[in-house]
Write a structure and sequence with these properties.
Helix content is 30%, strand content 22%. By secondary structure, it is of the alpha/beta class. A 7-stranded mixed β-sheet has the order 1-5-6-7-12-15-14. Strand 5 and strand 6 form a beta hairpin. The radius of gyration is 21 Å and the shape is globular. The chain starts with a strand and ends with a helix.
Length: 363
């Protein structure tokens, strides 16, 4: 049973470690330093813990070895942990259900998986104050990649959430304040952004549903120090998940990862929506602003949230500087890669034309 031991209960969210067969020592250093500083009561790995079928090839023992290594700093401190799944986890040659069975074999894992609904590891965790729940934490599987874009949380998952919410309300005569953690963001995250002209400083270029549009953070609505270095990659379809969260006012915060280069949060219709930046150093990310999120719950039903960053926890020196440098120039998505290729060949073409002109006139 999870409960308040004093006036607060700390949840640490670790997003997008996205490790292959060999785990980055810098990823482990980040997690370890964050645990040492905050001593959380619960840790949530919020999807894309691992990836690359070429690394794992469906080998269960290799998957277990890497998941064991990723969670060891938490388990060594006897901190309970749970997970939700991202779009990359299932790409290792084992299904999420098969990976979930591996997690269940690790000491300290407390996750469950609701039956008869889509996805894996949909579950709710009670955080009690005395004999009654003070908060509920929902972990929701935001499903996977589509042929074009990303899936959404499905209707039967939304119905499951509503059913759990209503059962608690019926039992306790009130709705229970709730936090939601999932991998892929809600479409409503765009309400924290401002559309601007191309070339605007710090703007990011949208794609798919937001193709050829440019956005910056609305500084009046997001936390000081928040950053956005890539466009949100939200679901292709808005399934009404956010509207369900609004219905009874129980959900006070929803936090996700998925887009490694983003860390910010702000309120939309009274619900705090927040990105947690990537923690992994063997994949693209926001430099030494890689980090984790803390969600600090209080007995009076209030809460606060903030991120912790590698540069402040560990410092400016990484153990794998060459790999770090390579991943800093890695494209964030297919659209980023295409745009970079276009710019590269445009520059190459311009250089070729200038060279030909120089040879023609001066050769």
């Amino acid at each position: 049973m999870l409960s308040f031991k004093n006036d607060t209960f700390k949840i640490m969210q670790i997003a997008d470690t996205q490790e292959g067969k060999r785990v980055s020592p810098d990823t482990i250093d980040l997690i370890t330093a964050a645990l040492e500083r905050e001593n959380p009561d619960l840790v949530v790995y919020s999807g894309d813990q691992i990836w690359k079928k070429s690394s794992f090839k469906g080998n269960r023992e290799e998957v277990k070895r890497v998941l064991s290594e990723l969670t060891r700093p938490v388990r060594d401190r006897n901190i309970p942990f749970t997970v939700c799944f991202g779009n990359h986890d299932r790409q290792v040659g084992l299904s999420n259900d098969e990976q979930f069975e591996i997690y269940k074999e690790l000491d300290g894992f407390i996750g469950e998986s609701a039956k008869d609904i889509d996805g894996c590891a949909n579950h709710v965790i009670e955080i009690k104050n005395g004999d009654e729940p003070a908060f509920l934490l929902y972990l929701i599987d935001s499903n996977t990649s589509l042929d074009y874009g990303y899936d959404c949380v499905h209707q039967n998952q939304i119905d499951w959430y509503k059913g759990v919410r209503d059962r608690y309300e019926n039992e306790y005569g009130k709705v229970i304040p709730s936090i939601v953690i999932q991998h892929i963001p809600l479409c409503e995250i765009f309400e924290l952004l401002i559309e601007v002209k191309k070339g605007t400083k710090k703007s990011v270029r949208g794609f798919r549903n937001h193709a050829n549009k440019f956005y910056v953070l609305n500084q009046d609505r997001v936390n000081k120090g928040g950053f956005m270095k890539e466009s949100p990659a939200e679901p292709q379809e808005n399934s009404g998940e956010f509207e369900a969260f609004k219905e009874k006012g129980d959900v006070v915060g929803v936090y996700f990862g998925h887009d490694h280069n983003n860390s910010f949060n702000g309120k939309v219709d009274g619900i705090d929506l927040g990105y947690t930046q990537g923690a992994g150093f063997h994949v693209y990310g926001p430099g030494k602003d890689r980090g984790v999120r803390i969600i600090e719950l209080r007995k009076d039903s209030s809460f606060e949230t903030y991120d912790l960053r590698f540069k402040n926890l560990v410092g400016n020196k990484v153990k794998e500087p060459i790999q770090y440098a390579l991943f800093q120039i890695m494209p964030t998505n297919m659209f980023d890669a295409i745009n970079r290729a276009i710019k590269f060949f445009a520059c190459l073409g311009a250089v070729a034309i200038i060279t030909i002109l120089i040879l023609f006139f001066f050769g």
